[in-house]
Design a protein that fits this description.
Elements lengths: L6 H22 L2 H27 L2
Helix pairs in contact: 1-2
C-alpha cells in the first residue's frame, strides 16, 4: 500500500493557512460585520477543522 509520505507536512501547511486566514479576518473585519456573519463563520471554521482532523485520523 502506497502511503502519502508528506501528509504531516500538508496538514501543517493547511493549519498554518487556516490560522493566517483567521488572523486576517479578525484584524480586518468591522464589528457590525462580525455580528452579522459570526455564526456562519464559526460553523465554516469548525467544519474545516473537523474535516482536517477526520482525514488525518482515518488515513
Amino acid at each position: 500500500m502506497n502511503r502519502n509520505k508528506k501528509l504531516q507536512v500538508t496538514i501543517f501547511l493547511l493549519l498554518g493557512l487556516l490560522l493566517i486566514l483567521l488572523i486576517h479576518v479578525i484584524l480586518h473585519t468591522k464589528v457590525y460585520v462580525v455580528f452579522s456573519a459570526s455564526l456562519g463563520s464559526v460553523f465554516l471554521i469548525g467544519l474545516i477543522l473537523f474535516l482536517i482532523l477526520y482525514l488525518y485520523v482515518n488515513r
